[in-house]
From TrEMBL:
SUPFAM superfamilies: S-adenosyl-L-methionine-dependent methyltransferases. This is SAM-dependent methyltransferase. InterPro entries: SAM-dependent_MTases_sf (IPR029063).
């Protein structure tokens, strides 16, 4: 561990940094933060937060003399898949906001405070948000306002209000504005006169007006004494504001995907047969880590999770990801990570030098991909040639469980009803030929009472 490989997202805080070594993740703590870290650990705050599953646990490792100003090396429990707030559904972001405020309240009991309130300080771990930034804690100074108040509003309150009261697609603004949605923009976009409740509005308008008047921090003036009682009142007000924001997802064709939906090709007998086939395929692949692309409400993700796999379950529809996440929470399913990602336009590299936030396809690859009832939407709905799809999928996984939906299927017929059929190669033979360039078929079976087929492919070894 002579050379510390700094993580490209860890460069802003002089108190320490994240680095990796042999696929392990570590946190280095600088001498300038040693006193604060010691207080954090000895105060009992760390132990309480870990015991309440609010903070990711770590273990301390020995440091070498040649590490200079590094006083501690920590190895936190590794998050299996790093995700970002702009990929989360409404409830994931809301719960992350609430644990941030809970941690702030508890920290004050121990004479500490959160120095920042970035949504990137939380991750989804074992099915729910958890705080991951040990260096965010500072010693509380009586009378000082919360410097992270405006940041909390930008990264939590504004995005949640925009999703709930304007349009869920505005969650993408967090992708565009990595440091938080500008509050003057949020206020302009919110139909607050008719729909928004007073709690969120007051916090957002307060900061927005400060921005217009030239205030940067959006907090009280430095000479103004801000007692702990006022700090607790502020946290309670923010908590109430977050709790008051609710979102009822609109019912889409996909959020109602089941055997009784007449717009879907499956009869109940077919759906049950498909479940049995997919379960058999997952067992055949001995899958431990799966991406379920176009996962919808997560029915097949749950089958994979039930077999012990960790599943990253993605769909572009915020409604179905919200449904899936809440359903998993109720069922206490902890090994599925639902994310709102459009596979036609997956999350790119973002941030400083395009290295700070990693693209979806550059994060740890799965051993198996599920691509069920999606091939026709990509090949016919989006004009992506089968050869391109096969090549792309071969760069992402070693094993592929995929469903072929032919032109005889009612859904494909409906897709071609008002457009020219320019897809002569979209046949079962054409599908098999395209994928044979990159994969070897190891299993295939027709779904009962349909013309659809499930295939299992294994990636060919490079020559």
């Amino acid at each position: 561990m002579d050379k510390l490989n700094h993580h490209p997202a860890s460069y802003k805080d002089p108190s320490g940094f994240i680095f990796t070594h042999q696929s392990r993740v570590f946190r280095a703590i600088d001498a300038s933060y040693k006193k604060t870290y010691d207080y954090f650990m000895k105060s009992g705050l760390y132990e309480r937060l870990v015991n309440e599953s609010l903070l990711i646990p770590h273990k301390e490792l020995r440091t070498a003399k040649k590490m200079g100003n590094v006083k501690y090396i920590l190895e936190p429990v590794k998050i299996p898949f790093i995700s970002y707030p702009y990929e989360w559904c409404f409830s994931q972001l809301k719960e992350a906001a609430l644990i941030t405020l809970t941690i702030q309240k508890i920290a004050l009991e121990y004479g500490m405070i959160l120095r920042d309130a970035s949504s990137f300080n939380t991750q989804i771990y074992r099915g729910k948000p958890i705080f991951i930034d040990t260096l965010s804690f500072g010693v509380y100074e009586e009378g000082r306002p919360w410097s992270a108040y405006k940041q909390f509003c930008e990264q939590f309150l504004a995005p949640l209000a925009l999703i709930a009261y304007a349009d869920p697609r505005l969650s993408r603004l967090s992708h565009l504005f990595l440091n938080g949605v500008p509050l003057d923009l949020a206020v302009k976009l919110l139909p607050w006169r008719k729909k928004i409740r007073q709690g969120p509005l007051l916090h957002l308008v307060f900061h927005s007006s400060n921005l217009r008047s030239g205030s940067r921090a959006g907090a009280a003036k430095p000479e103004l004494f801000f007692p702990k009682s006022s700090m607790m009142g502020l946290i309670a007000s923010l908590e109430s504001a977050i709790q008051s924001i609710t979102w009822n997802p609109v019912k889409t064709m996909w959020s109602q995907y089941n055997g009784n939906n007449k717009t879907i090709s499956y009869k109940q007998i077919s759906l049950e047969d498909k479940k049995h086939i997919v379960e058999r395929c997952i067992k055949m692949c001995r899958s431990k880590y799966i991406w379920d692309l176009g996962a919808n409400t997560g029915e097949f993700s749950r089958i994979a999770a039930g077999l012990g796999a960790f599943v990253v379950s993605v769909d572009s529809d915020p409604s179905v990801i919200e449904y899936q996440y809440l359903n998993n929470r109720v069922g206490k399913v902890s090994n599925i990570l639902p994310l709102c990602i459009d596979i036609l336009n997956p999350t790119p590299n973002l941030g400083w030098m395009n290295l700070e936030r990693e693209s979806f396809i550059n994060r740890p690859k799965p051993d198996t991909i599920l691509a069920l009832a999606i091939i026709h939407h990509l090949a016919i709905g989006e004009n992506i040639p089968l050869s391109n799809l096969a090549e792309a999928l071969s760069t992402l996984t070693e094993k592929l469980i995929i469903e072929f939906v032919p032109k005889t299927d009612p859904q494909v017929k409906e897709m071609l009803l008002f457009r020219e059929d320019i897809f002569p190669s979209y046949t079962q033979a054409g599908f098999e030929a395209a994928f044979a360039k990159h994969f070897s078929p190891i299993f295939s079976k027709r779904i009962r009472a349909t013309d659809r087929w499930i295939y299992v492919f294994k990636k060919k070894k490079a020559k």
